[in-house]
Design brief:
about 425 residues, alpha/beta, single chain, 14 helices, eight-stranded mixed sheet, globular, Polyamine Oxidase, Chain A, domain 2
Length: about 425
């Protein structure tokens, strides 16, 4: 055998699994289909002149996020996103009044207790939207934040119990170099083969055998970190096929849709907004919410987020459509002249079309709250383990969750190695 542990995928989970193997003194090989490491985290530095994360951005739940001490150990500065953020909310074309903001705050404060109480109640799983407060002037805005923005899909299609289990708390930190760049640093020194797409994985005997255009690689055990979209779509032919409950879990954990749009300023006009101005607006039920942060960390660009079905539609229409939508939102909040403060052209992400992603991060379908635990269960005594953000019970959808999942999967897999 060429190595003790084979890792498929060099995203956060794969990097964590490989580092765990190395720390244990075991041989490891990582096969990555892309021409880069990082998976759904990618930092672009050219278009806007500064690091811009096209995918994952924040180190959520910073107090328990395993990447926080690793970043600090590398000497990477971590900005406190919550302390930097200057929140500005619009009602139509005007800023919200203090009274309206107090109502907004109250609606936000009521959301999580309502979700947790209903999730803990007996009875079948339901849509998260059914447990969310409704009818108040800000309830639809809070639901849009929690659904299309944070979960990348509407609450009406998400399992309440899984959603409640993954409500985030704690701080949110921003690596100065970008989160994708941080993962690149953490992958340094690992034996990664890029452009190595695994076409077939045989795992039924006493070893695992990966096959593809790269040739054949044999290992004692494997950790597979491809996203659920690819598992469900049979991007890799597993021999024997993955068990039916595992395949069902992959189908029950689809990926949401999100687009990030970056616009760089023409000159010094900052539109009367402070640095790290996080803007949103009141929306009605069914209306789309597009948060826009102006001048993040004092930099000369704006960053917008389009989530849920609207993001899927915009990606089908192309980058120009996404840019036009964001410019229209800027005009609606700051006046018709405001979009002229930005250069033509935008930096626009495209994760749905990415053949190695097909979406952003996972949510559980209604009634499938146990799918993550099924997906994370070691197979063949640990000879094959699946890992990634979709496998984490309470940090799903985060890089920290993917990292912890990769570490756990590697420990299980290495336990089978003689």
């Amino acid at each position: 055998m060429e190595c003790d542990l084979l890792v498929i995928g060099a995203g956060a989970a794969g990097i964590a699994a490989a580092r765990t193997a190395q720390a244990a003194g075991r041989s490891v090989r990582v096969l990555e289909a892309r021409g880069r490491v990082g998976g759904r985290a990618m930092t672009e530095t050219t278009t806007l002149g500064v690091p811009f994360d096209l995918g994952a951005t924040w180190l959520h739940a910073a107090e328990r996020n395993p990447l926080v001490p690793l970043a600090r150990g590398l000497g990477i500065a971590l900005a406190d996103s919550d302390a930097l953020r200057q929140e500005i909310t619009f009602v139509g074309r005007r800023r919200a009044t203090p009274e309206e903001l107090a109502e907004y705050d109250a609606a936000e404060a009521a959301f999580e207790p309502a979700i947790r109480a209903r999730a803990a109640a007996p009875g079948p799983d339901i849509a998260a939207a059914e447990a969310a407060p409704r009818g108040g002037p800000w309830d639809a805005t809070v639901a849009a934040w929690q659904g299309q923005v944070i979960s990348a899909w509407p609450l009406s299609a998400i399992s309440l119990r899984d959603f409640a289990a993954n409500l985030l708390s704690g701080g949110n930190l921003l690596p100065a170099c970008g989160l994708g760049a941080l993962l690149g640093r953490l992958a340094e020194g690992l034996p990664v083969t890029l452009g190595a797409r695994v076409a077939r994985l045989r795992w039924g005997g006493g070893q695992v055998v990966a096959e593809g255009a790269f040739g054949t690689l044999r290992a004692a055990a494997a950790v597979c970190t491809i996203p659920t979209s690819l598992l469900a779509g049979t991007a890799i032919r597993f021999d024997p096929p993955l068990p039916q409950p595992v395949m069902q879990a992959a189908h029950d954990l689809p990926l949401g849709a999100a687009i990030k749009v970056g616009l760089r300023a023409v000159g010094e006009d900052r539109l009367g907004l402070p640095a790290h101005a996080s803007t949103d607006r009141q929306v009605a039920p069914g209306e789309e919410l597009i948060p826009i942060t102006f001048w993040p960390q004092g930099r000369d660009h704006a960053q917008a987020w389009i989530g849920g079905p609207l993001a899927a539609e915009m990606e089908r229409e192309g980058p120009d459509a996404a840019e036009a939508l964001v410019r229209a939102e800027i005009a609606a909040r700051l006046g018709s002249d405001a979009p002229h403060a930005f250069r033509p052209g935008a930096l626009v992400s495209g994760w749905i079309a990415d053949p190695f992603a097909r979406g952003v991060y996972s949510h559980a379908r209604i009634g499938a709250a146990r799918a993550r635990s099924v997906l994370a269960e070691p197979l063949a005594g640990g000879r094959l383990c699946l890992a990634g953000e979709a496998c984490h019970a309470d940090l799903a959808g985060t890089v920290g969750g993917a990292w912890a999942s990769g570490e756990a999967a590697a420990r299980h897999a290495l336990g089978t190695c003689a």
